[in-house]
Amino acid sequence: MIFDYFLQTTSTHFSSALSMVDYVQCILETVIDYKKDNIIIGKLFGKDAYTYFAKDFFDYVKFGDLSLCNSFGVALGISYKSKTKTWLNISDSQIESGIFYEFLQNFDKNHNLLVTVDYNGIQLRNHVSDFLPNFKEALEKLSKVPVHFCNGHDKEAIKQVLSKIEFPSIIVFKTIKGHGIKEVEDNPFLYHGKILDEKLYSKLFRK
Question: Model-level pTM?
């Protein structure tokens, strides 16, 4: 069970990992070969969402970043006219940066790149919508590549989108922080950045 795995790894930001683990699985099973394609991780918080399916995942990652948005330029450079597919996964907090909108101005058909956004809407102390109430409309207006929006926990819907995806593209996955644990879903700020240790595990899963 995934919760047991997170306990074994003493997962930091386990609630963040739960928000993206479903779509990460679908991507690694379909459009991305992590050992052959270029992997750029702009969202390292919740890293166990990647290693749950591939323990050696980070042995093949070309570049990893936290929330500083350095991954945008790296992804553009690597994917420019590349014959090898590139995948960049980012958090929704990164879309608030000015760098992201500069990135959109340069992300075009010359880049063999798939960008995915984990849009769980929750930051450390605020909701993303507090800063970007019209993100969907702005992204669709500014992007030079196709933009898709999908439920990040509906695997059938995710696979359907991925089956038709073209490189370059952007997919925004609407997710739930702490998905699968009601207590965490209902209190996302309380559990933000928490480590899933024995004490917390017993609290969340006690009968």
Answer: 0.95
Domains of the chain: 17-205 (3.40.50.970)
Q: Which of 159, 149, 175 is nearest to 91 (CA)?
A: 175
Which among 74, 80, 83, 91 is positioned nearest to 39, based on CA atoms? 74
The string of pLDDT tens digits covering residues 71-87 is 999 999 999 999 999 99
